[in-house]
Amino acid sequence: MGWRPRDTLDADECVICMERAFEESGTPSIRDGDQGPTYTVQAYMDCLARNNVRQSMDGVKRRADNVLMERRFRDLKHNRACQTEYENKRELRHVIASYVERYDFRRLHSSLDYSTPAERHFSGINEANALVGKMTKWAA
User: Fold this and answer.
1) 3-class SS at 84?
2) Which of 9, 11, 37, 67 has the most Cβ atoms closer than 10 angstroms to its Cβ?
3) Is residue 130 a part of any domain in this protein?
4) Residues 6+ apart with CB under 8 A from 91
5) pLDDT of 34 higher than 50
6) CB 81 within 8 A of CB 96
7) Whole-number CA gyration radius for the chain
């Protein structure tokens, strides 16, 4: 439940984003990724190990392994971020933040029994690793 727009796939940027997400939203018990170079370098794997997060990887050339996340990012790219030319990074960040807020905290998902991903995340699914009371920071 974290994001950080960058124009590089550098693992260090991914680690910074992941650590910030862990601080803000709690630490999950498992993190899904693909087999790209960002998710297989030592810095990334060390971050997961430091936070006691198991790593799950999609199979080679198996884009459907994590179809829900793939669909989310396709929607963000094709229906939001790539529809407009932005004046600056600040404007793009605002579009992404608005999308994430709506998707994670307001939009009801039929695949989640008509709850939001944030409600599911903070409901106890990750209870062993969740930070108490973090959802109130985002609600409104």
Assistant:
1) coil
2) 11
3) yes
4) none
5) yes
6) yes
7) 15
Residue by residue, what is the 3-state secondary structure of 89-137? HHHHHHHHHHHHHHHHHHCCEHHHCCECHHHHHHHHHCCCCCCCCCHHH
Cα 4 vs. chain centroid, distance in angstroms? Answer: 9
Q: What's the total number of domains in the chain? A: 1
Domain of residue 99, CATH code: 3.30.420.10
Assigned domain for 56 exists: yes
H/E/C letters for each residue in 14-66? HHHHHHHHHHHHCCCCEEEECCCHHHCCHHHHHHHHHCCCEEEECCCCCHHHH
d(CA 72, CA 6): 18
Tokens of 78: 């094709």
In a domain? residue 80 = yes
Full-model pTM: 0.56
User: Quick one: average pLDDT of 47-60?
Assistant: 80
* Residue 109, phi then psi, degrees to nearest 5: -115, 125
Query: Higher confidence at residue 60 or residue 28?
Result: 28
